[in-house]
Write a structure and sequence with these properties.
- The structure is a single chain.
- The protein is an alpha/beta fold and about 400 residues long.
- The chain has 14 helices and 10 strands.
- Helices cover about 40% and strands about 10% of the residues.
- Strand 9, helix 8 and strand 10 form a beta-alpha-beta unit.
- The chain is globular.
Length: about 400
């Protein structure tokens, strides 16, 4: 295949020869994975023809968005819907998220796919709200998710981070929500590296103190907590926390830096997964977990460990802009026809960053059609004025 001229981080360009063949991953049918419960947090596909500005409500290409979810289900992965990977709070408002939840839950039911959906408070406008208002917002979203037939993920709330003044405020509000839920939920702890507005969540900027409050919520309602989703990018903290969970409560890693070792686990346990990086890694991730299902931990690590460099690249600071790389790779892989994002977020990463993402993903064999990916990469380079 013809070499491309890719921008170098320090300036200038360098030659890169794309892969000639993609990696081959078996689908395993749509059978669920056995040894771990694995969710991919999925992105949304914008409507590129919508004549809107970045601060207007998102226009979503529903057909392409749902087709991508079917792609994930076809490999046996679950879909974590309307999470931060779907640009929740970064381009997708509550009205759009509610429609996404309804449509995706119906699609999951039609194809027999596993789904869990985010419950938050983003219908509240920015500013300060009472704890009663935050609770009511959570209840509204919890009702919609449960009525859709989906499992609920109680997401960390920006509004609660402002309204709560003590750990007791968190304990009281979450206790109320867990009593209200009809089925066990997943509790979500998203660190400030993903959303700076969540700094000090659980009532303290001291992570040790915050962990104690978090664990108290779980210990007081273990029958209502299916699991916890931890996104702090701290493997040691996650391991220490999962060892303290009540029996039957799962830990879903959200650590996009250290996921292979956390999923593989140790003699005292392991993490399941709810990861944004499994959006671009879907087929490869499913293949790795199917190897793990056979008891072959080394084979699992041999497949998944090489993906960490790509993940750390996509999730580098400012981490919250990782969605740009995720959607970029979906375009290159042929899952959508354009590189446009809701909220105009396609501009959030530099060309050298995107070029490196392309190179790493291509090296992993993630593109079903490497020639298509190279052609699309060339078109982007041309737009940026990089001569080939």
């Amino acid at each position: 295949m013809t070499a491309l001229r890719l921008p170098s981080p320090g300036g200038g360009t360098r030659a890169y020869t794309p892969s000639a063949e993609p990696a081959r991953f078996s689908t395993g049918g749509a059978a669920p994975l056995a040894s771990r419960t694995v969710f991919s947090a999925a992105h949304v596909v914008a409507d590129p023809y919508a004549d809107i500005s970045p601060d207007e409500p998102a226009a979503v290409d529903w057909d392409a968005t749902l087709a991508f979810r079917r792609h994930l289900w076809s490999h046996g992965l679950g879909v974590a819907e309307a999470m931060d990977t779907a640009q929740r709070g970064m381009g997708l408002d509550w009205a759009g998220a509610a429609e996404l939840i309804r449509r995706s839950a119906a699609e999951a039911k039609a194809v027999g796919g596993r789904i869990a959906c985010g419950v938050g408070t983003d219908q509240l406008p920015p500013g300060t709200h009472s704890l009663d208002a935050v609770r009511a917002a959570y209840e509204e979203q919890l009702t919609l998710v449960e009525e859709s037939g989906s499992q609920a993920i109680l997401m960390a709330s920006r509004a609660l981070a402002v309204a709560a003044t003590t750990p007791d405020d968190y304990l009281g509000l979450y206790a109320h929500l867990l009593r209200q839920s009809s089925e066990p939920v997943v509790l979500h702890w998203l660190g400030p590296m993903f959303d700076p507005a969540l700094d000090g969540y659980w009532g303290s900027a001291d992570l040790d103190a915050a962990t104690e409050t978090f664990l108290q919520v779980i210990s007081e309602h273990p029958d209502k907590v299916d699991g916890i989703k931890i996104s702090l990018l701290d493997a040691d903290r996650e391991i220490a926390l999962r060892r303290r969970l009540p029996k039957g409560v799962r830990c879903y890693t959200g650590d996009d830096f250290n996921y292979p070792e956390l999923i593989a686990g140790d003699e005292q346990g392991f993490s399941h997964a709810l990861l944004g990086i499994f959006d671009p890694l879907g087929p490869l991730a499913a293949e790795a977990v199917r190897v793990l299902d056979t008891g072959d931990t080394e084979g699992f690590r041999a497949l998944l460990d090489p993906t960490v460099e790509l993940s750390r690249h996509l999730f580098r600071t400012p981490t919250r802009f990782y969605k740009t790389g995720v959607v970029f790779l979906a375009w290159l892989a042929g899952h959508q026809d354009h590189f446009t994002m809701v909220g105009g977020l396609q501009s959030a990463r530099s060309l050298p960053h995107l070029a490196r993402a392309y190179e790493l993903a291509d090296g992993l064999g993630l593109f079903p059609d490497p020639a298509l990916a190279a052609t699309r990469m060339t078109s982007l380079l041309t737009v940026y004025g990089v001569d080939q």
